[in-house]
Amino acid sequence: MFTGLVEAKVPLIETLIEGTGKRMGFDLGTVCDGVRIGDSIALNGCCLTVVAIQETQCWFELGAETLARTSLGRLDVSDFANCERALKVGDRLGGHYVTGHIDGQGILDRRVDEGEWSYFYFKAPLSLLRQMASKGSITVDGVSLTLVDANDEFFSVALIPHTLSNTTLGGLQVGDQVNLETDILAKYVQRAFGK
After folding, report:
1. Number of domains making up the chain
2. What is the pTM of this model?
3. Under 8 Å between Cβ of 82 and 11
4. Residue 180 exposure: Cα atoms within 13 Å on the Cβ side
């Protein structure tokens, strides 16, 4: 379980093809403190298992399903990913409940920069848009955000300067794909009403 509060932007240092999957190494820097093999780490919102550690560098194995359903497989060496360690019992919850299970992809359709703030408008599959509501929660590339607006065509978010400079979202350009995870409560409500 995660919160969507990014601890650091971490660089991809190595990608190796392994059958239909990939083995990817990231330099987690100080986020690596206390991390052990088998721990869960969210990278761009996707929960991955640490399979090897060397100093501050951690490696993860991504199967064909993860590569097909997330944007992680499109990262090149030196690209950055948003990184968050899994919650520990008793940790403060400052974002919202995030599982690290990516629901689908969105595309940045429009970006409006106003001074140090930015407003992003994303296209997404209708099935995901129907799980969103104004002032609800959305996770975009692992970042917990509050929805400004949501309808059957797009959703929008307002990004503060801190988020723009401390996550990969600040570097997004129109046409870029992002990982999306809708709020877990919305999924259960939708399932209960059979929609």
Report:
1. 2
2. 0.93
3. no
4. 26
Tell me the per-residue pLDDT of 65-74, one tens digit each, with 9 for 90 and over. 999 999 999 9
Contact call for residues 84 and 7 (beta carbons, < 8 A) = yes
- Give per-residue pLDDT as tens, 11-51: 999 999 999 999 999 999 999 999 999 999 999 999 999 99
End-of-domain residue from the set 58, 85, 112? 85
Domain at 143, CATH number: 2.40.30.20
**162 found inside a domain:** yes
List phi, psi (to 5°) of 43: -120, 120
Q: Which two tokens stand for residue 28?
A: 């987690």
How far apart, in whole angstroms, are the C-alpha atoms of residue 142 and residue 169?
Answer: 10
Residue 131: partners with Cβ closer than 8 Å, 6 or more residues away: 103, 182, 183, 186, 187, 190
Per cent of the chain over pLDDT 70 is 99
Instruction: Please give the residue range of the domain that contains residue 187.
Output: 104-192
